[in-house]
Each structure stands twice: as structure tokens, then as C-alpha cells.
Fold this protein.
Amino acid sequence: MADSPRTTVLFYIGSMEPGGAERQVLTILQHLDRSRFAPVLCLAHRRGVLLEQMPADVPIESFWDGFAGTARSKLCHLLKVTRYVRCRWLAKCLRRHRADVIYDRTYLATLDAAAAAFLRPTPRISAAVGDPRMQFEVYARFPRWLWRWFSRRSYCTAAVVLANSEGLRKQLIDYWQLPEDQVRTQPNAYDFERIDALASAPVPTPSSGRYGLLTVGRMDEDKGHADLLSAVEDLVKQRGQTDLLWQIIGTGPDEAKLKQAVAQRGLTANVEFLGIQPNPFPYYRSADLFCLPSRSEGLPNVLIEALACGTPVIAADCPSGPREILADGAYGQLVPVRNPTALAEAIARHRESPGVLQAAAIAGRQSVRQRYAVETVIARLESLIDEVVARSQHGG
């Protein structure tokens, strides 16, 4: 009996910059069973340091490779039809690779994939990673009613919508008015053996004996860096904790504004911008405390990564993610959202009694390794892909 043909899965995302969604796509591509699945990666932009870690057997295509700088691209930009052209390109990729299913991750990728799958009918698995209301507010164009209609249709036409936390699942159902059985909780996957190996490397920029506070993530309004900066100012100037060093890994649209605010408040000796770090895990391991001041999240990778390294954590209790990961505060401290005073008090308490959060982090390390192990999560995804393809083949 001949072997069954492999299922071709086309993964689509904007780029492979080192964000949480991008790291999850990389993890899936590294661990997907090649005896059953043939993955293809399509990107809007071929960029990002995570490309260096991509498995050699994964074909990669990028919309901008043959488009950027051409007369056609300039004309499309002038006519404001670049998105339409990109969706047609993606539809051609689906056809050329004879994709059985498309997996899109992030809000904008879902919009592109929905249009492409309309042009070349293909069942879709759409993975959402953030608060749908906030993402709509950030990305919506005029007329907003039309953008909202198209956004909702993009999710409604997916075979399955994935949420990386139970809280996000409820938000997606409520905001986009989706059937409950269409939206499933699929947690992020982590290769903890790999994390342990990476964490054992030396820290490129150590805190040099100072109290090390760490954040990792994109610098934008949702991530709450402004709230933590106010807390750091309180700790340094009002509570005399001048040895505090806040190390920030990441970049983003608010980076220049944040650097300016640091300088204006006289905190340049207490805040260090480290930019993108291909391997952030030694920083997690060496930090005295990891802080997640986010105002909105799905399932924050960085919080799980910090716990995986045994680092004590404090997180803002935003609507989705941190409370679920920290088991209502059993594995780290939750503080109110947008509350610099609460952040400062939590950090100060940890300095006075570090053993409390350290013990919670040890328990949290074991918990996340059980709940988010790559073998378990990828097996669930593989079963889901099989289900979606079988349903499509039988006209479901």
C-alpha cells in the first residue's frame, strides 16, 4: 500500500521579526511532523533574525521580494491597492504549492489570508494573539464600518479560529460574534530543552551587581512601558533605590518617546535599552525580577519564558493571559492595570522579601513546563489540521 501523501500547510505571517507570534510560528515549523506534513512559509516581508533559525526544508516566499522598489509597487502604492495585490500573490502561492490548508497568525495576516482563500478556496486556521477590540482600533481604516465588516467576515470564514488563552477565546466570540464551537483554545508551544540550553549562555550585558529588573517585548502603548517607567521613577527618586537597573529588550514605535521620557526624568543611569536580542534567555535567568506591565495581552510568551527560567515575575492583571498563566497569582504577583504605584509597591516588596516570589517562580516553572510543552501542544495542532482538511474534503 502506497504511503499517504503529506498534507501541505502554508503558514502566513508578516515577517520573522522576534515577536511572540513569530517565535510561535518558528516553533511550529521546527516541530511539525514531516512524515505527515509539508510546511511552506509565506511572508509579507522577508526580514527578521528568526529566519536564521528556520529549518532548511521549509520553502520561504516573500511578497516584497519581487515587488519592492519596482514601478508597479509605486503605482500600487499611489492607487492604494497594494493589499489587494498582496492577497492575489498569496492566492497564487496557495495554488502553486497546492496547499491543503492555510495557517495565518496575527490580525493583519488573517485579513490577507481570508481574501487569498476566497480567490483560491482553501480551508483556514486563523490564530489570534491579542485583544480583538484593541487590534481593530489600532489598524482600522476608513470607512470603519467596511473595515469592521471585512474583519468579522475574515474570522467567520475560517474553518477554526484559535485563541492562545481562554480569556482571549471569550473576547473573540463576543467581539466578532463568532459561534462558540468555531473558536478553540490552543496554547502557545515551548521547547523547554532548547530554552534551558539558550539560557545557559553568558549574559552579554550583565546588570553588574545591581538590582536587575527586566522587560521583554514590543515598545508600544499596549505594553505599558510608560506605567513601569513611572514606577521606576518612584522607586529611584522617592524610595531611594538608586541601584535599580531596568533592562529593556525589544524595539517598537514608542521607543524614541520612551527614551526621551527616560532622559527627561533623569533616569538614564537606571534604564538600559538593549534592542533586539536574538537570545533573550540569559537575561531572564540573570534578572532579579521580570515585569510585564501590559495593558492588553493574549497569552504573553515572555511571561511563560520568564517562569521557564525560574525568574520571579510581576504582571499587570490585564483582561487576558497573565491571570491564566499565573493561576490567579499562585506563580507570581498580579497588580492592577495602568497603576504605576501598585507596580512600584510590588517591586519594593519583592526587594524586601524576595523569597516569596522566588518560591512562586519555582512552582510556576514546573507548571508551565507541564501545560505548554511543545510535544503536547504541537500534537494538538496536528490533530486539528487533520480534522480541518478531512472536513474540507468531505464538504464540511
